[in-house]
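Data availability (excerpt). All sequences and predicted token strings are deposited with the supplementary files. A representative entry, D-3-phosphoglycerate dehydrogenase, is shown inline so that the format can be inspected without opening the archive.
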Amino acid sequence: MTLPTTSLDKAKIKFLLLEGIHPSAVEVLRAAGYSQIESLPSALPDEELKRKIADVHFIGIRSRTQLTAEVFAHAHKLVAAGCFCIGTNQVDLAAARERGIAVFNAPYSNTRSVAELVIAEAILLLRGIPAKNAAAHRGGWLKTAENAYEIRGKTLGVVGYGAIGTQLSVLAEALGMHVQFHDIVSKLPLGNARQVGLAELLATSDIVTLHVPETPSTQWMVGAEQIAAMKPGAILINASRGTVVEIDPLAEAVKAGRLLGAAIDVFPVEPRGNKDEFQSPLRGLDNVILTPHIGGSTMEAQANIGLEVAEKLVRYSDTGATTSSVNFPEVSLPSHPGKHRLLHVHHNVPGVLSEINRIFSDNQINISAQYLQTNEKIGYVVIDLDAGSSERALEKLAQVAGTIRTRVLF
Ligand SMILES: NC(=O)C1=CN([C@@H]2O[C@H](COP(=O)(O)OP(=O)(O)OC[C@H]3O[C@@H](n4cnc5c(N)ncnc54)[C@H](O)[C@@H]3O)[C@@H](O)[C@H]2O)C=CC1
Ligand SMILES: O=C(O)C(=O)COP(=O)(O)O
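Structure token line:
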């Protein structure tokens, strides 16, 4: 790796934003003095992503772009990646950490948008509106109360009682629903909600809604067996990740009339952008609401996400602060007026800090402030020092065994 001998000029720092990230992000970056910003409306094909990522210092993505170890292998200049969304499953966080690339996200900015969509879908499906609407568009007139129900008094089963699941729990109770939830962790129930096992939840909920992250434990967690275990006439909603529900048995259950309906926002394979065709066995089923992964796509959520993640990238670029990073030790740092700041990312093995301090002492370099945080894999040391010594110190720091990456800021 070629080491910088000076802090990189802001005019040379390049940002690549993909997947139609809200313009609020560009505004934050520009206001912070960054001008080299390319913002594209879609995800990129793999080869183009590898080519473009090689030339940028920061990348912003949403849920579609896969930042794999192979992609990171091309990211020679990349300092940080921002997920302008909640999920970070699309990023190989360990590979990023190994290369000293910090990853950030927006853990709460679209929570409410997802919860509101789920409530809306539950009401529409309980009334059979998607099918009645589709029929009316074809000239049909399905005026009937059969299989149309109020949401009041129904039981909502929430799988994954995190930020979205709990928000939903509160909204659902306000509408008079009973809420039960399943989570791998014991959670404090809000209101009158109660925690139950997955089998009980499936067997007794009128509406089952999924709000788990994409992990090995959630992969295909709702398949043929779980769908068969749901109450006859129940509704399934998935706005979590496309790998959580097996689509074929779901399509069969809907066609067979075992389920009243379903609302699916996320799919095992999703189009890269709005110009690509969406393919799914669920197409053509009138009592299934199909949405193009827009659970978090509201103007409010996207504008807030743009601000939140861009601010995290700016703070990291300007000061080295890693507050709320999802793969780096968290260091919240004051500004460093009049001083130069060295950033040192290293493997978390014994002796690195003492070696760093020995170097400073042997070379009589005065440290004005030092911050260290570690996680199980890496350590992150930030050192403020006099301008005159930073170039020499950086050179020495880069030679410390276990060093992953160094940077200087001033
Ligand atoms: N459709 C969309 O546009 C959006 C989708 N999402 C998806 O929703 C997911 C959930 O978001 P948040 O509620 O903010 O996440 P969160 O991290 O606050 O909550 C997730 C909950 O799931 C639980 N969980 C994990 N594995 C589980 C398992 N195997 N069984 C049961 N529970 C399990 C966790 O303990 C946690 O309580 C995100 O990871 C993301 O993938 C998020 C925002 C928008
Ligand atoms: O926030 C999330 O995890 C989402 O799934 C939303 O993804 P998006 O930014 O709409 O591609």
